[in-house]
Automatic annotation (TrEMBL):
This is Transcriptional regulator with XRE-family HTH domain. InterPro entries: Cro/C1-type_HTH, Lambda_DNA-bd_dom_sf, TransReg_Diox_bact_type. GO terms for molecular function: DNA binding; DNA-binding transcription factor activity. Keywords: DNA-binding. SMART domains: HTH_XRE.
Amino acid sequence: MRGASDHLSIGERVAFYRARRGLTQAVLANLVGRSEDWLSKIERGEREVRRLDVLTELAAALRVELADLLGQPVLLEDDHEHDDVPAIRDALMAPARLSRVLFGVEDDGARLPDVRQVWRLTEGAWDHYQRGDVGRTVQLLPRLIQAAQSIETRSADGLDGWAVSSRIHHLATTTLTKIGESDLSWIAAERAMKAADQADDPLVLASAARAGTHALLAVGRYDDAIQLGQTARDWLSRQLRQLDPAALSVQGMLDLRMATAASRRNDRATTTQLLASARAAAEQLGVDANHWQTSFGPTNVALHELSAALDLGDISYVTEHGPQIDSSPLPTVRQVAHQIDLARAFSYAGQDANAVSSLLTAERKSPQLIHHNPVVREIVRTIHRRTPASNHRHSPVRELAERCRAIQ
């Protein structure tokens, strides 16, 4: 069940899976090149795992997914208590998606969806996502995915149809990744790229590859994310010699996605190189734009530089420089991600009041992006655990923990 046992901390999940695998602390610690004392403190919650590459190594040693240690998604409920993720799953896993030969469409008189109308609805759903209204996006996606399937099967030669299908599945990938549904996001990413292959549009394919990097990052496959991003970036460069703003934005975002992957595998040199490439593209673009829903520009590059510094362990740099960056020119979803990064850094630095303040700021912008986020729940749970019991009742951190379902 989604959200089951989500009250456990990362350390408690490590201990749970270690016991399930029949491993001692000494054996697991040796597998990841750490001391038994280090692992013992992790499992008891006396020490935090601050680097995702270390969590990825632990997950590999325990033979589980990275998401199993980070925490599973809870029910995504908006003000109307909508949770349509199961409907997205049904749309993505419909048997007709498995074979166009076996499930060939007969002329049953059904009306083919108007590609232009579906495109407009898709762009509207992207707008909802970028404004942080993830619940509304999730509600729209099942019908959009079904429309994409109909367009693909009934007008296989229509290039615009393939392009809109790719954009729909790209949106599904990004949304599902954001809410922790990593397995579904990979299915959506694969569909996005298959449709993009048929679209005969370099930007459609490169943008779909960006969706693929999202899905790969979500499951800790950092080397694969870099390989996909670099391949797509090189291919786009060969296809479009005269870079227009849209192509420049997509290339820049591929650089940023790869920089994120490099920082999460603790590769400082590659991270620095990729961030410099993205910064050069942003300077050439000159503005904070949103071509192809990339939010690419100087501000987004600055936010990714902070996020990379956080993954690389440069906590003091993030706490000092992070609050000085004005993220307001960017869509809400990026503003919220920035506040979450600040909260992580403040929590690692023991500045709990600042961490809670950052999360409350983000919650006011988009409650949904905060309440179901496994990283947020871990931050809040950690702060709640080290807050004196006398301060718990009606405290902001306890109330936030309850809203995020971080505590029982």
